[in-house]
Amino acid sequence: xxxxxxxxxxxxxxxxxxxxxxxxxPKLHKYGLIYTGYARQHVVEGLEPRTTYRFRLKVTxxxxxSVYSSPICVTTTSKVLVENGADVNLKNTxxxxxxxxxxxxxxxxxxxxxxxxxxxxxxxxFGGCTAMHWATDGGHCDVxxxxxxxGCEVDSRDSGLEWTPLLRLCTLSGKTDVAMLLINAGxxxxxxxxxxxxxxMVAALNNHEDLVALLLEKGADPxxxxxxGKGALDMAKGxxxxxxxxxx
Length: 248
Fold this sequence. Notes:
Elements: E1 18-25, E2 30-37, E3 52-60, E4 66-68, E5 72-75, H1 78-83, H2 98-105, H3 108-116, H4 131-138, H5 141-149, H6 165-171, H7 176-184, H8 199-205, H9 209-217, H10 232-238, H11 244-247
Antiparallel strand pairs: 1-2, 1-3, 3-4, 3-5
Helix pairs in contact: 2-3, 2-4, 4-6, 5-7, 6-7, 6-8, 8-9, 8-10
């Protein structure tokens, strides 16, 4: 689900419009909150194929006054669409295709179905991210494990910061179970981004203690320096991160 009111996202965040997505319970015919925040889109998880759902958007201004959109109906028909000639590699406005979105959302059955109908692991969005980048963001281990078994590359770099999925994970979620899958599949624990930062440095900067411990256990080198001559310990100390105890 997406909405676009970019002109309302100027100035400090407390002056932005706040959005709440509500979904209807088909039995009770009442709406329940499934998302609230300042984003422009939300992925609704756990939807069943060939099923119709009703959603509405609540928009709240900085004064606390709210208005509702008209309800919209969404029918999950991916398999029907593909069987009738839909392009599985079609991309949205940010360059993401259906495979990337399914990987992020954790829909393993849809991922497998799209792959069997020609969806490619080599496809990239407009930021250079692959399905593995998005699957890592989603954090669904069953999907990532299957992707690896299906031959999806674990060390592809995006075209911005030159992040691999592991580097991206060290910045965002810090999930050790996902990191373990990537590393065991051959992800480079000492890879550098365009600024010379390694996964260990990024994990230390973001204070992901368990992830730092895992990276060290898996061979991450704490003595590597970035292009400014700083190592993971320097970065941890500079920001008073507790992970420094693992690095000293």
